Amino acid sequence: MERDLEQLNSALNSIKTLRSNVRRVFESVSNGLRADHGDEGKENKYILELQELLTTVNNDLRDVENSVANLTPPPGAFSLGSTTSLSQETTHERQALYGQLVNSYKWTDKIHEYSALAGNILSTNSFNKTYKTFSTTKRRKTQTSNHNVPSDVIENLITSINKLFPDVTITTNRPFVPNPVIQASLGRVLKASIAFKGLMIEWVVVKAHAESNDLWTESRYKVFKKVTENCHAAMCHFHSPMMPDLAVRSFMHWFHSYNILFSAPCKRCGNHLHNNLPPTWRDLRTLEPYHEECK
């Protein structure tokens, strides 16, 4: 592989040299006879100069052919599948389909990437259940599902979170009774809509204060889209069916670290902005800020 890259680099340099010398030939032809050729025999001097330039171009062309001949040819024609038919379209509307197709492929690749990350996070939080042998006269106590709990238990959990973070403004509404949706505002930095299903967080969306509170519409700002994606990763990381109240408090403690989203520099590179974005990732243990490329 390294040898192929060296040969390709050599071929590109040969082409660059050839283009430069061809440009010198055209410049000489366009300028014609010049004052530096002198008064005597200036035609012969010009012809000799042009012959020398053409000889150099001929040698450069030979070098390009040799460099290209040393390259490893591709194993076969690249198969583009049905997308090759798009080049036969003449209407402007249908030609735009290719760009949309590329974006859909990128979106699918991103879905696979985040799915793999979510799978790895969930696998690290697996709980090994231990079972004891009971006699036939005893029955195992049925555990209450975390998705089906009384509303007052959920209300007490939200109240305790509100007391735990006095600088976070929390309002509650219940569009999906009895499961609440809370609006958590971090000062003037951002707001988040957090949907619960029982004692477990089911969905999070982060937006600017000027945007709507719609739970299923993402923010129009890229910075809050990134924070939303990271909240989903943290939601999976802190997921704990055995201790749901602790999982919610841990998530809110992690989410609270975004109150310095636009003021804290990246812990690794020390810059406030990278690719026009602040550090949108927070370490799940230390809560230190990082850019997406620096984490």
Question: What class would the helix/strand composition place it in?
Answer: alpha+beta
Count all strands and give the number. Answer: 6
Order of helices and strands: HHHHHEEEEHHEE
Strand order of the largest sheet: 1-2-3-4
Strand-residue proportion = 5-15%
Shape: elongated
The stretches of 5 or more residues where confidence is low (pLDDT under 50) are 127-144
pLDDT averaged over residues: 82
Task: Report on the architecture of this protein.
With 295 residues, this protein is of the alpha+beta class. The protein contains seven helices and six strands; from the N terminus they run αααααββββααββ. It has helices at 2-31, 42-69, 92-95, 97-124, 151-164, 222-237, 244-256, and strands at 168-176, 179-186, 190-197, 200-207, 281-282, 289-290. The strands form two sheets. A four-stranded antiparallel sheet has the order 1-2-3-4, covered by helices on one side. It has a two-stranded antiparallel ribbon with strand order 5-6. The longest helix has 30 residues, at 2-31. The model is unreliable at 127-144 (pLDDT under 50).
